[in-house]
Amino acid sequence: MKRRIIMIGRSMAGKTTLCQYLSDQQLKYKKTQAVEIINKNMIDTPGEYLERTYMRGALMVSAADADTIVLVQDATENGTMFPPGYSSSFAKPCIGVVTKSDKATEKQLEDAQKYLKIAGAKEIFVTSSYEGTGFEPFLKYFEDK
Questions:
Q1: How would CATH label the architecture of 5-143?
Q2: Which of 64, 67, 96, 138 is the most buried (most CB within 10 A)?
Q3: pLDDT greater at residue 39 or residue 69
């Protein structure tokens, strides 16, 4: 992946696990405390930056170095932290990734995709880092850009 992406989502949404999977690292839980650059092309952000509205400015600053915004939605979460039209804040291409698809019901998967569409994600990818599913179309998206 040549484009730099920023992962935005609430705590425990799977942003760090997604980064670990994409960079062929061992999957293990690690709480992200600050913005981290992984393999020079992924920006991992703390969930608190989205969860606390007074910290959202830090996401705007961190996103300045990204080519693509990736909104990360946990499929098993009831509800979302992304307001309608959230992606328009960035003026950059925005995609959505649904995580933890292996733990979700069909209804939860549908809802997660709906939340991401409402937030402004133009394309949505449904993934499971633990099963290794859904990543081919995600990676192809970046090859085509």
A1: 3-Layer(aba) Sandwich (3.40)
A2: 96
A3: 69
